[in-house]
Predict the structure.
Amino acid sequence: MHEQSATGPHHTTMTERGSFALARCTCGWTGPARRSRDRARADAEEHLTTTKTADAGETRAARP
């Protein structure tokens, strides 16, 4: 798998292993295995929200 930097674009996908679902991101992040698909989706959404906030903070800090 091609790994992107933590500040690059984030794209999440859902993966199922048996009765468990987990979220993965192109940055290399992997959420915990969940029995609930809805909770795994929420983990992915939380990751995207967190990284967008962090990436925006880094962008603002870089500007004079």
In short: The beta strands are 12-17, 20-25. DSSP finds one helix and two strands in the chain. Residues 1-5, 60-64 have pLDDT under 50 and may be disordered.
